[in-house]
Design brief:
477 residues; 2 strands; two-stranded antiparallel ribbon; mainly alpha
Length: 477
């Protein structure tokens, strides 16, 4: 398991950028407690990373499929456990609250028991940087694990664009890392620059870009009636929420000289269509329950913003005083669908929805034309059968997991609607669905098991449930 140790060392090494950023802002704001804690953690993690690498490098071997799946799980928990000490040292939280806060940041859930207005700048930057690294880890594991082994029917036809190596079984880690890191970091910088151009404070623009591209629900300036009180900046946010939820493979293709037309990449096209339909249908449904006020244009824009926010699993409510003016059941459905494959978005993913609809349509045609051989049918194509099996396995495993988590939250005192929102919101990493329902019990505070349940659901959603199952079984899923 030397390879897993090297992966742990890499996670710790890259995580020091989050602690170092916290230390810098602690010094800038003269928050010396935060500065000392982050400086200490930065040094400690550098030493741990060096030790883990030196111990593991001598035992480095080629990782087989089972070890890679185990490595994916270990890497996520390494990131979360590494993020925990800062919350205990600086904010004085207990281990369970620290586990929740660290999980929320690392998985880009963005929920917190600490109000945004009460967070220090150092901790705000630390949370945002951790989420950005969590988004980067999500992209890397999607390419190295989900796409490489087609987990849950993940399409890997164009995986060669970012996955480099002699063969798919022999990938080049660092070359692939740069293929993902460069567009991810570039889009973050472009988003920040556009927000600054729209007259957003530079610090808030950078934090906003970091959170938006990682589809993280934490918004540092969300302390008043609206997010920015700047319509142009909010339009930029909507655009980059869609970009953050789009496939990094498609985005990488667009940066190449010849580009890659949208019509040739079906998932991206389907995602844009789904977003358009969701906005139209969501606004229509909301008018029956939440009539528009005097400012019709403003009300329509706010609702479109909230719908895009949930569909991309960013989970930011436009108006924090009024909440989301969209029927909750509709939002839960959007959250379950989520964004594209190879993106920082959560949910079941658009490609699985397309695959299931295509398979269902073929099955209906088979009932009408039982003797006809249909193109792409599971009977005519073995690959189509394997993909359909994996896709439906992923879909039903998610439904079962969500039902179990809903039952758990309900048993802890949350109402059914709140319990369902918590389970779906945590699994799909939609921050506002979780934040609005954490304090939904009759007792003061939040039950510890609720915090642990939300954390584990978010981690399972990020790793993908089938990866966890496959790590301890011989099935490929």
């Amino acid at each position: 398991m030397g390879g897993v140790g090297v992966l742990i060392a890499l996670v710790l090494l890259f995580f020091t950028s989050a602690t170092a950023a916290g230390a810098v802002f602690g010094a800038m704001t003269m928050d010396w407690r935060a500065f000392e804690a982050f400086a200490l953690l930065t040094g400690a993690y550098l030493l741990l990373a060096a030790f883990a690498y030196l111990v593991s490098a001598t035992q480095l071997k080629h990782l087989n499929r089972s070890h890679i799946f185990v490595g994916a799980i270990v890497m996520w928990f390494t990131l979360i456990f590494a993020a925990m000490p800062a919350f205990m040292m600086i904010e004085g939280t207990g281990p369970f609250v620290a586990f929740f806060e660290a999980s929320s940041a690392a998985t880009t859930l963005g929920s917190s028991l600490t109000p945004v207005s009460s967070m220090s700048m150092a901790m705000t930057v630390y949370r945002s940087a951790t989420a950005w690294l969590g988004g980067l880890l999500t992209l890397m594991l999607a390419i190295y694990v989900l796409g490489r082994y087609a987990v849950g029917g993940t399409p890997n036809r164009d995986l060669r664009v970012v996955l480099h190596g002699a063969t798919r079984a022999d990938p080049r880690l660092f070359q692939t890392f740069w293929e993902v890191f460069i567009p991810y970091a570039t889009l973050t910088l472009i988003c920040a620059a556009l927000l600054v151009t729209a007259r957003v404070d530079p610090t808030q623009a950078v934090l906003g870009a970091i959170n938006i591209l990682s589809t993280n629900g934490l918004v540092a300036w969300q302390t008043s009636g609206t997010i920015l009180n700047n319509r142009l900046a909010e339009i930029i946010m909507m655009i980059f929420m869609m970009i953050g939820a789009s496939s990094i493979i498609w985005l990488r293709m667009l940066t190449q000289l010849q580009g890659y037309p949208l019509e040739k990449y079906g998932e991206a096209k389907a995602f844009l269509v789904a977003a358009t339909v969701a906005v139209v249908v969501g606004i229509a449904l909301s008018l029956a329950t939440f009539p528009l006020g005097r400012f019709v244009g403003e009300g329509l824009f706010n609702r479109a913003f909230d719908i895009i926010s949930v569909l991309t699993t960013t989970g930011v409510s436009h108006d924090v005083r009024q909440g989301v003016s969209i029927p909750l059941v509709f939002l839960i459905g959007l959250a379950l669908v989520g964004g594209c494959s190879y993106s920082t978005a959560g949910g079941i993913k658009i490609f699985r929805l397309r695959s299931m609809l295509h398979h269902s349509a073929n099955e209906i045609k088979r009932l009408v034309y039982p003797n006809q051989i249909l193109p792409g049918s599971v009977d005519a194509d073995k690959t189509a059968f394997i993909t359909a099996k994996a896709t439906w396995s992923a879909f039903f495993s998610v439904l079962i997991f969500v039902m179990l988590m809903t039952a758990l939250f309900a048993s802890l005192g949350h109402g059914f609607t709140a319990a369902l929102s918590l389970s779906v919101g945590a699994f799909s990493t939609v921050g506002n669905l979780v934040s609005d329902n954490l304090f939904s019990t009759n007792t003061p505070g939040v039950p510890v098991l609720s915090l642990v349940g939300v954390s584990l659901a978010a981690v399972v959603g990020r790793i993908e449930l089938l990866v966890i199952l496959a790590a301890f079984s011989r099935n490929r899923w």
